[in-house]
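Hey, quick one: can you model this chain's 3D structure?
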Amino acid sequence: MTRTAIVVRGGWEGHHPVEATEVFLPYLRAEGFDVRVEDSPEVYADAERMAATDLVVQSVTMSEISDDAVKGLRAAVEAGTGLAGWHGGIADSFRNSADYLQLVGGQFATHPSKHPDELCGDETDNYLTYRVTMTDLGREHEVTRGIEDFTLHTEQYWVLHDDLIDVLATTTHPVQPYHPWHRPLTSPAVWTRLWGRGRVFVATPGHSVEVLRDDDVRTIIERGMLWAARTR
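Sure thing. Here's the predicted structure for all 232 residues.
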């Protein structure tokens, strides 16, 4: 049976929403999804269409969303539509909507920078080498099973979150003399969330297409999309 996926992309261009989502469109089609692409989250307000959608893949950093669209997305996920995404396209979307933030369960707060003496004024100021560490749950979960801890050199997301997420992998922000915090802070790097009959999947790596093509990151996102999709 063919399943339906809507890929919603837009928002801040710094995360290259078109190029980033294009990385995964062939995979979704190969997995049997009828994939439709939208350039606005307002599609969420179309209740009939959302009820027929098995998976939403969202890549919309920051931006804004109407109350009707948020209500539509929440209702669809609660009824069984899956929601999946990576980096700012899902974890830094629609900052004006508390209802959206509650649905996703985690929100980007910052990505710490390099030493001040190393700053050059472009996006690489926030590129750090950091470790993604699997949790005990992550070592058994179908999304991350068999994936060992791995290292990336990119933005390291500091995430504010609640306890209703199931954390599959974490990353720890160390104490540095040029930062104001005084003890290491561990943030979720990959998580899932059950919401009504629906599933939510989030991976925080994914700032660039290069990061998305990393074998571990790509595998986690591909598995995460399939995990989140409605099961019939």
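One thing worth noting: The CA atoms of residues 87 and 108 lie 8 Å apart.
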